[in-house]
Amino acid sequence: MYYKRTLSKIINDASDTFPAVLINGPRQVGKTTIFEHTMEKNRTYVSLDDPHIRSIAKTDPALFFKTYTPPILIDEIQYVPELFPYIKMIIDKEKRNGLFWLTGSQMFHLMKNTTESLAGRVAVLNLQGLSQGEKLKHSVSVPFLPSFELKRNASILSLSEIYKLIWQGSYPRLLAEEKMNWKLFYGSYISTYVEKDVRAFVNITQEHNFLKFLKVAAARTGQLLNYSDIAKDVEISVNTAKNWISVLETFGLIYLLYPYSNNITSRAIKTPKLYFFDTGLACYLTGWDTAKVLENGAMNGAMLETYVVSEIIKSYWHNGEQARIYFYRDRDKKEIDLIIEKNNKLYPIEIKRTANPNVKDIKNFSILKSFKKEIGIGAVICLTDSPLAIAENTTAMPLTYL
């Protein structure tokens, strides 16, 4: 079963405007599939996962492009960065849009190569796992902003149904194949990820330490990133912890959410928060074996927050936009879960595991006045079934509206 992806509508527009289109994202999120469902018949597909093809591309890029001529879809291009200069030469010679469609599983590492070789020639799109709207087959998906008039064909879900979405995760194959074993899928995913990607990217001599690191990092989703604590728990150096966090970020498995600051409020902290993109993967790594156990467990709040943050980021990325989102926390531990910056306005958001939010939940929103910017509508994203005004400029919004 194919789930229609929001990003599909962006690909053709990007291909009509740029000579190359690159989709970044972790393995198994559907990068190749979304291209294949959009691809015209005359475009050649070639995967650099194939060792023979990869060898030709590395040793003789000129021969590679004589064999595989544009328009072309090149899968997992991060394996052969040597192709980028040749792609640039072909683009500059042919001067046509839509010549190259590319996928890559190393987000920031790959971005460096495209910036150097394809500046101004490539549209870079980010894809993560299925969004909530894609899973529930909602017809409308736009970048999320709090609103009193937000139009959503949202489903009303019970608490158990919400936690099933969180626990299940967002990888398309896991959802499309009804008989797929959840534990087997994530166990295999981690094994493949460690053996195939991480080992090719960074020298890891003690695999069991890295697996322990994954579990320790997942247990901290939704928390301030503390390298020293992670290093202590895994029994590695702080520099190694920093390096491995960078690896997770590079492969698109985690997101580092940075605090909002415009240098007016000097009391604001500077440490980012760590979030896993896929809550199913985070649940697997932290041992929540069923949705019901998660719903009643100690991490139910952290996983709910992680899910909301991930969904909001997807709502922007899958519409081809950057997500300008932050959080706020100061030395007095006053905190705002999320701040979305859009059109020079700040939109404050709290995430609460409650169906009955009140004004106490938004007591820190007034802090934003110190930034001397226009304040947009605030929101408490929670378990309510329908939108509800809880203050003059703040609304409670159902989690299913994401």
How would you portray this structure in words?
With 402 residues, the chain is of the alpha/beta class. The chain folds into two domains: 8-126, Rossmann fold, CATH 3.40.50.300; 132-401, no CATH class. The chain is built from 16 helices and 15 strands. The strands form three sheets. Strands 9, 10, 11, 12, 13, 14 and 15 form a seven-stranded mixed beta sheet that branches. A hairpin with a 2-residue loop joins strand 10 and strand 11. Helix 3 crosses helix 4 (61-67). The two termini are 23 Å apart. The model has no long low-confidence stretch (mean pLDDT 91).
User: What's the gyration radius in Å?
Assistant: 22 Å
- Give the helix/strand class: alpha/beta
The number of distinct structural domains comes to 2
Largest sheet: 7 strands, mixed
What form results from the Cα inertia axes? Answer: globular
Note the beta-strand portion.
15-25%
**Helix content range:** 25-40%
Q: Span from first to last CA?
A: 23 Å
